[in-house]
Design goal:
The complex is a heterodimer.
Chain A (H helix, E strand, L loop, with lengths): L5 E4 L15 E11 L10 E4 L2 E4 L5 E8 L1 E8 L6 E7 L4 E8 L9 E2 L7 E2 L8 E4 L10 H5 L6 E4 L10 E4 L12 E4 L2 E3 L33 E7 L2 H4 L10 E6 L5 E15 L39 E13 L3 E13 L6 E16 L2 E16 L9 H7 L10 H4 L6 E20 L2 E20 L10 E25 L2 E24 L14 E24 L3 E12 L9 E10 L13 E13 L9 E7 L2 E8 L8 E14 L4 E20 L9 E25 L2 E11 L1 E6 L6 E2 L4 E3 L7 E7 L10 E9 L4 E11 L3 E11 L2 E3 L1 H7 L12 H5 L8 H7 L10 E3 L2 E17 L2 E11 L3 E3 L35 E10 L1
Parallel strand pairs in A: 2-8, 14-17
Antiparallel strand pairs in A: 1-8, 2-5, 3-4, 3-6, 6-7, 9-10, 11-16, 12-13, 14-15, 16-17, 18-19, 18-49, 19-20, 20-21, 21-22, 22-23, 23-24, 24-25, 25-26, 26-27, 27-28, 28-29, 29-30, 30-33, 31-32, 33-34, 34-35, 35-36, 35-37, 36-42, 38-39, 39-40, 40-41, 42-43, 43-46, 44-45, 46-47, 46-48, 47-49
Chain B lengths: L3 H25 L11 E2 L9 H26 L4 E2 L10 H4 L9 H30 L3 H20 L2 E2 L7 E2 L1 H20 L3 H18 L2 H8 L7 E4 L12 H4 L10 E2 L4 H9 L38 E5 H14 L3 H15 L10 H15 L6 H11 L28 H6 L6
Antiparallel strand pairs in B: 2-6, 3-4, 5-7
Helix pairs in contact in B: 2-4, 2-5, 4-5, 5-6, 5-7, 6-7, 7-8, 8-11, 11-12, 11-13, 12-13
The chains are: A mainly beta, B mainly alpha.
Chain lengths: 966, 432
């Protein structure tokens, strides 16, 4: 039962007089919006009083000044709550003070979503799963977009990758969909396609790619989380068909804030945080027993707990300030913002400074026409510590102590690697306009034009006298990615027959991506001093350019019968410049249905709301720009050109095609206090692009992409939210999500099993990819180890992910929330462990075994330990570990205040701890299973197969945030 | 019957639909054909101007493959001692103790296999583009045949089997036969092209191959055409990319950071200490290598001094090797005097002290084996010599520091490189 809102005359009414000559505009309407049951304030709710608009501040308060007398309809909307509507009568010279209670409605079937649909659609009409993240309602203070997405939707896995500053996260929706192509979902910002894959690694343009910091910067993190209003996530081809060839890995659409009708509203926010590295060394030996450190293994400079990095680790600080302004009239609304942050990381050289500005403008020149233009620009300067898997790496040398490249554990010697300078500057411009034209209620069109420019300058500098390159070395790489988006859609809605309605849509999209990577490098400087590429005695230049165009048409019809039966059928026709010349357009069909069974007369209302849904759709993934053509590379061989094979070519090359079927339900029971979202999905990728290995005796063309494979994955996604206690000034909410993903290679199409790096194999009957390698055939025998090839360790992506959240509303308007995440089932290679055990490094996980080994008393040492702790027997593959981990992602206490100080109307103060606690299954390794890195150009978020590099773990962070609204 | 309002609606809808079609059509009237610059399309390789670059590609790839084969073979033969550094510019653990196993040694097979394929392809394309008449006397063809000969010679000596174009494995001697044929053709074309260097290189290469094939008469005859001072090398270049450097030098000198190998623990160090023979020169340092070799611990780092720069070439053939071929041919006939004359000449040429006179044929063989070791040190030849001497059951023992045992820390000793995992996975003739 909805409580009756209270409209009362103030005992001592405050009379608000307008200072202009408008005798009718003399009253004020204000109110406070709270949650039913707990009376907790509801911030950022949209409030509409007649034609006027406003938003509640963090204290849940809204206000309309200068309201003429009369009767108005007051409407309040907020994601997760039932829409509120009532009449309000405004009397001259009096203030109307409203106390409004919003009722929770976690499942709102009339909520509008736009991602994956030609125009806007109501949730009840959509047959596929879709997740919405209302950023304004989050209890946490996200530090980046990666952080914002983490653990917020079923089937969405965000893996942090690095404890250093600037590292981008890997995002997977329902695991991997491709064995060879990027599995990062497409990202749209306000309808404009933006770069979603990582920037190139900052490394020398040729040769060994490990001379870096092992991280890759994500363009997503150029977006200020404070600017984001909401995020929509669609997870697979059943939902992404209309995005065509490149959407098989899912689509994430970010919507930034827009201006609200009403006076100017200022928001100021500052976030101050401190980060520290948690202990991450092994606590067990390889034998599984608690680690005991013998006296002879004690290092005076550092401890096992911190991988002997103790002398260099520090507390990192981040200071961020952001300012936003929004407001407008009915026909013009604006939102502008700016943010600046500076950060020092836990590693000695890590530093980042970022600045961003945004302007969003909405204009309605005629009732049928709306133009929206959004522009953002950010610039980011990064300085990184050389912490990669390299002879010049801090992590690597510190962990190997006296058996490192310096032959010494002395920090003064190892610290010479800090002369290695890794700096990047990243500029990112996203601009785009949306024109909506709705000449009649039945016909609407939408045109989006967008431009995304992501540019990086990466400078990699080892000065003259540097430890590993005595005469010095430098490179400077300029990378840019330009994405042009054009998207047109039209929808015609009409009655077909009786209660049967049709919404016929069609449209076309074109996306062109131009990437340019130009780099110059040189080495052997004449002497000391600040050098440029020009100064090296030996120099080289590298230039790579590619242009990929994707364009297509779609048509779709949504049939609506009685507002509870919905059927959608559609198809997309796509062309792509990376296809082979013989291929032509590709067609991707879709069909979906939803049934709001709770709207049936027979449905007992006491049970609540229930929507059943099912969907089938296809989408694809295009090959790379050069994959279809047979080409050769030219190398310089003593100053003259030499041709060697580059790519075998395949004129029939096409997209891999992923078909997905999913079914599920969304329900809300117990008066909205328990909501459940369940989805089962199964997807099959045919014509999968496999890197078919070519025999070295036929020219070592490496591998050629061919459409030969067949992959499958399936899983379930369960999301449950419960409001356990709702009492005045005390509430307790809890929720959890459980997602599974099991993949399998159904067919190799006659191709041989092949590796895609980092021990990841594509092999019939195995996961995609499957971690394989050598293992010990006789681990428990007290004998020499017997090495067995091609052992199956398991999948590289998590097979099950669990998140848990709980939040409390406490007396005094305090709120406490926590969120934890567990990822399990994956395996990966640990570079740090693996490279040490094959080099005779005294490795902590072997400390328990060394006394017997050193004494030659092997009779007590089982084969498994002899294999890994005696390097002549060792193999890198023995450093494959389970990547299961749990992290307490967030613990936040916050309180909103109504303020009348310094012009501020409200304040929100939050205290957070992020990643305060963690657990890993591999207690005998150095790894943080959430980090990644590698020797090659694929690191961090760009890794096709995740291996754990020399990265330090994700730090724990203590954060205080204050937000003031004026 | 439709009303005027519904007719207007339909006309309006039609107008909107047409407008939609126009916009949609304009958006998708994209030309999907994109030619991206950069990599050279295959069709351009038939241009005459591209032929030299193709032949260079053979040499580039052969040099790349030899970089691995020479260094890894040197450790298995204990021409160098491992310090425990593996991975980048390092030596892998099974290699430390004498084994050349698939899991660690795919690169030599793959890269040298590519060089072989490229050499065959380049000659096919040269013939097609130049025509038979020009082909028979063109200097680029002579050069291509020289590279082909050395590619097959390296394959025949270093690999355990021979595989051509994903075919069935056959004995490594098949590669040697192809090498002999290539050198024979090279002699003819280089003669027609009047290129004296290539003629001599072809004779020298064929002499090596004939030794491997057991044709001592032919080997002696070819060796006689090679002057003592002649050398034909695989060049290396100081490009910015360190992978183009002489790998043996770069992995083991003070100019790099890897310190992966040492002359410590080898017969060559022992010999050099007593003789100062410049052919086995090394530098003694107080440093240790990166990593550790478990039975020893941290290995003293004594870098080799044969290759002192990144650009140091590796001999493919030399006049001094030709003399040793003549010496071995003589020894096989029991002619110690001739053999010692050749050895003495070589030593004098190299600035090495005169060798002690052997008291027996066995001692002469021992000396000859040492001389080949010294002359061909770090040139990727030692394992092949061990392989044929073992097969031929020749007299004369090798030093304990060169053969499996406690002194050398060798658990075993593979004389040849295996088929790579990539070949095993893709060649139907190798599948079980």
């Amino acid at each position: 039962m909805t409580p009756t809102p209270i409209v009362r005359r103030l005992p001592n009414p405050v009379v608000h007089r307008r200072l202009v000559d408008d005798p009718a505009a003399i009253a004020t309407v204000r109110g406070r919006v709270v949650v039913e049951g707990t009376n907790a304030p509801v911030g950022s709710a949209q409030v509409q009083l007649g034609a006027r608009g406003a938003q509640t501040n963090d204290a849940g308060v809204f206000s309309f000044a200068n309201v003429p007398a009369g009767t108005y309809t007051l409407q309040i909307r907020m994601l997760g709550f039932a829409r509120y509507s009532r009449a309000v009568t405004v009397v001259d010279d009096q203030a109307t003070d409203l106390a409004i209670v919003l009722k929770r409605q976690a499942l709102s079937l009339d909520q509008i979503v736009v991602t994956g649909t030609p125009g806007a659609a109501r949730r009840r009409e959509i047959g596929n799963a879709i997740s919405q993240i209302d950023v304004t309602a989050l209890p946490e203070v996200p530090s980046s977009v990666d952080n914002l997405l983490q653990g917020k939707a079923t089937g969405l896995t965000v893996t942090g990758n690095s404890g250093g500053v600037g590292g981008g996260a890997s995002i997977r929706l329902r695991g991997n969909v491709s064995a060879t192509q990027s599995n990062q979902p497409l990202i749209y910002v306000d309808g404009v396609r933006v770069k979603s894959d990582g920037f190139p690694k900052n490394t020398f343009p040729t040769g060994y790619a490990g001379n870096s910091d092992n991280t890759v910067y994500s363009p997503l993190n150029d977006i200020d989380p404070s600017d984001i209003d909401r995020v929509e996530v669609i997870k697979g081809p059943a939902a992404t068909t209309l995005y065509g060839t490149e959407a098989a890995s899912g689509v994430i659409q970010i919507f930034t804030k827009r201006g609200q009708t009403g006076g100017a509203r200022w928001n100021f926010q500052t976030d101050q945080s401190a980060s520290q590295t948690p202990k991450f060394g092994p606590t067990q030996g390889f034998d599984g027993s608690p680690l005991v450190i013998p006296d002879k293994e004690v290092n005076p400079y550092g401890t096992v707990d911190y991988l002997y990095l103790d002398p260099w680790l520090r507390t990192g600080y981040r200071h961020k300030y952001s300012l936003g302004l929004d407001g407008g009239r009915d026909d013009v609304k604006y939102f502008v913002s700016g943010a600046s942050s500076s950060e020092t990381g836990v590693l000695p050289l890590d530093k980042a400074t970022q600045s961003s500005v945004r302007g969003n403008l909405s204009v309605t020149p005629r009732p049928a026409v709306t133009l929206q233009w959004n522009t953002s620009f950010s610039t980011n300067d990064l300085t990184k510590t050389p912490a990669g898997g390299t002879a010049a790496g801090l992590t690597l040398n510190a962990s190997r102590r006296d058996r490192n490249y310096f032959g010494s554990a002395d920090p003064a010697k190892i610290g010479r690697v800090l002369d290695f300078q890794l700096t990047s500057r990243i500029d990112h411009l996203v601009t785009g306009g949306t024109l909506q034209y709705q000449p009649s209620e039945s016909f609407s069109t939408r045109l989006i034009l967008g431009y995304d420019l992501a540019a990086q300058e990466a400078r990699n500098y080892m000065p003259y006298g540097f430890a590993t390159v005595p005469k010095g070395q430098i490179s400077d790489g300029r990378y840019s990615s330009r994405t042009n988006t054009a998207d047109f859609a039209a929808t015609w809605s009409h009655n077909l027959l009786g209660e049967l309605r049709s919404s016929l849509s069609g449209g076309a999209q074109a996306v062109a991506v131009d990437q340019v990577n130009v780099a110059a490098g040189s080495r052997d400087f004449p002497g000391p001093g600040e050098q440029t590429v020009s100064n090296g005695a030996l120099s080289l230049g590298v230039e790579d350019r590619s242009r990929v165009i994707n364009g297509g048409l779609f048509v779709q019809d949504l049939l609506d019968f009685k507002n509870r039966y919905f059927l959608t059928v559609g198809a997309r026709f796509d062309g792509n410049s990376a296809f082979g010349e013989s291929l032509g357009l590709q067609m991707y069909p879709k069909v979906s249905g939803s049934y709001v069974v709770s709207d049936e007369a027979f449905w007992p209302k006491a049970i609540g709301t229930m929507k059943l849904r099912a969907a089938y759709g296809q989408s694809g993934r295009a090959p790379g720009a050069f994959d279809a053509v047979r080409t050769w590379t030219s190398y310089s061989w003593g100053g003259i050109a030499a041709f060697v094979p580059r790519n075998l070519g395949n004129s029939l090359l096409g997209p891999e095609r992923t078909a997905e079927v999913e079914a599920g339900f969304e329900s809300s029971t117990l008066g909205g206090r328990l909501t459940t979202d369940f989805t089962w999905y199964k997807r099959t990728t045919k014509d999968a692009l496999f890197a078919v290995s070519q025999a070295p005796s036929e020219g070592l063309w490496g591998s050629q992409l061919e459409n030969v494979g067949k992959l499958q994955s399936n899983g379930v996604e369960i999301g449950v939210n419960a409001s356990l206690v709702q009492r005045p000034h005390f509430g307790w909410d809890a929720g959890f999500t459980y997602s599974t993903n099991h993949s399998q290679v159904l067919s190799l199409g006659g191709a041989a099993p092949f590796t895609i790096g980092n021990n990841g194999w594509i092999r019939e009957g195995s996961p995609v990819p499957d971690i394989r390698g050598f293992c010990v055939a006789n681990p428990t025998e007290f004998a020499a180890p017997v090495r067995q090839a091609d052992c199956d360790y398991g999948p590289n992506t998590p097979t099950h992910t669990i998140t848990g959240t709980t939040s409390f509303t406490l007396p005094g308007d305090f709120a406490l929330s926590t969120r934890g995440e567990y990822q399990g089932g994956a395996f990966g290679y640990s570079l740090l462990d693996g490279e040490a055990i094959v080099r005779g490094i005294r490795w902590p996980s072997c400390f328990n075994a060394y006394p017997a080994i050193d004494a030659g008393n092997l009779a007590t040492v089982p084969a498994s330990i002899r294999a890994v702790c005696m390097s002549a027997n060792a193999n890198r593959d023995y450093a494959i570990f389970p990547l299961d981990f749990f992290r307490l992602r967030d613990l936040t206490v916050r309180r909103a205040f109504a303020l009348h100080v310094g012009g501020a109307s409200s304040a929100m103060v939050s205290l957070s701890g992020q990643n305060l606690f963690w657990w890993k299954k591999a207690k005998n390794s150095m790894i943080d299973p959430e980090t990644s890195g590698g020797f090659n150009s694929q690191s961090g978020m760009s890794q096709q197969v995740r291996s754990v590099g020399g990265s330090i773990p994700i730090p724990r962070t203590f954060l205080m945030s204050v937000r003031l609204t004026y | 019957m439709p009303t005027s309002k519904t007719r207007r609606t339909r006309v309006g809808a039609l107008r909107h639909a047409l407008a939609f079609a126009c916009v949609a059509g304009s958006l998708t009237a994209c030309d999907f054909k994109v030619t991206n610059p950069g990599p050279t399309a295959d069709k351009f390789l038939t241009d005459t101007l591209s032929l030299v670059a193709q032949v260079n590609g053979v040499a580039y790839t052969l040099g790349d493959g030899m970089n691995y084969q020479v260094l890894h073979g040197a450790v298995a033969a204990r021409e160098l001692f491992p310090t425990g550094q593996s991975g980048q510019f390092g030596i892998e653990p099974r290699n430390w103790v004498g084994y050349l196993v698939t899991e660690e040694q795919s690169t030599p097979w793959n890269t040298l296999g590519r060089a072989r394929w490229l050499s065959d392809q380049s000659l096919t394309r040269l013939k097609a583009v130049l025509g038979d008449g020009v082909f028979a006397k063109h200097p680029t063809v002579a050069q291509a045949l020289i590279w082909r000969g050395f590619t097959y010679r390296v394959l025949g000596e270093a690999m355990c089997v021979s595989i051509v174009d994903k075919g069935a494995p056959s004995p490594a001697k098949v590669s040697l036969v192809r090498a002999e044929s290539a050198f024979t053709a090279a002699v003819a074309v280089a003669t027609a092209a009047n290129n004296a260097t290539l003629i001599t290189a072809a004779y020298a290469g064929r002499a090596q191959v004939r030794v491997d094939l057991g044709d001592w008469t032919g080997a002696e005859a070819d060796a006689a055409n090679v002057p003592a001072a002649f050398k034909y090398q695989m060049p290396y270049y100081a490009n910015v990319d360190e992978y183009g450097y002489n790998r043996t030098m770069w992995s083991s000198t003070s100019q790099s950071f890897y310190k992966a190998t040492s002359v410590w623990g080898t017969w060559y160090a022992k010999y050099y200490d007593s003789s100062k023979d410049p052919r086995a020169a090394y530098t003694k340092t107080a440093l240790t290598g990166a990593g550790a070799f478990p039975p020893v611990g941290k290995v003293p780092w004594w870098p080799q001094a044969k290759y002192m720069t990144q650009t140091a070439g590796i001999n493919l053939v030399s006049g001094r090797e030709a003399r040793l071929i003549e010496a071995e041919a003589a020894l096989r006939k029991g002619d110690i005097v001739t053999a010692m004359a050749r050895i003495d000449a070589n030593r004098a040429s190299a600035g090495a002290p005169v060798a002690a006179r052997p008291a027996s044929v066995v001692e002469a063989w021992t000396l000859l084996k040492q001389e080949r070791g010294l002359e061909l040190w770090l040139e990727g030849r030692r394992l092949a010599d061990m392989r044929r001497w073992t097969a031929d059951k020749t007299p004369g023992a090798l030093d304990p520091l060169e053969v499996p045992g406690a002194a050398s820390y060798l658990e075993g000793q593979d004389f040849c490189f295996p088929v790579s995992r990539e070949e095993a996975n893709t060649n139907p003739n190798l599948k079980p």
